[in-house]
Amino acid sequence: MTEQETELHEVDDHLDYGLSVVFIGFNPSLKSGEVGHHYANPRNRFWRILEGAGLTPRLYDPSEDRELLKLGYGFTNIVSRPTRGVEDITREEYAEGRLKLHAKLKEYLPKVACFVGKGVYTEYSKKSKADWGFQPEPLIPEMYEFVAPSSSGLVRMPLEEITDIYRRLQTFLSSEIV
User: Fold this and answer.
1) Which of 28, 39, 19, 38 is nearest to 113 (CA)?
2) Tell me: domain 3-70+94-176, CATH 3.40.470.10, correct?
3) Which residues does the UniProt record annotate as the domain Uracil-DNA glycosylase-like (predicted)?
């Protein structure tokens, strides 16, 4: 762990009961740990993806992450420690994070757990692979599991292709409104 990482803080979860979606990342970036907001790295495309997919009515800033609770969206990570990259996360942190994440999801029971990256989902579910979109056998039967591409700027998939996958989530949520 670098000296810079030891000075960073975990980014608070934004969770509540009755949420439509909880977005689940690997762990906070160094920038997120520095400023205390989810998806704060300027190269991360998360906020543009949400707007482009129609999940938010406008482009939000990372500093407004808590405001998304009003839209029915929450945030958490499988590992809470900020790091430079996922390669810095230990097997022990994943094992502990998996248990904590399962307990959070079981308690708050959002309609959808959206895993921001296939790797996040495979670490959580212990399944060797997953397709984009809704998963056939959720670990918590009362909740849907949705796997979406990572919003990291390091992902080589075109932004429009990523946004289209997130749009499936928006379509589902729109059809569920009573």
Assistant:
1) 19
2) yes
3) 16-159
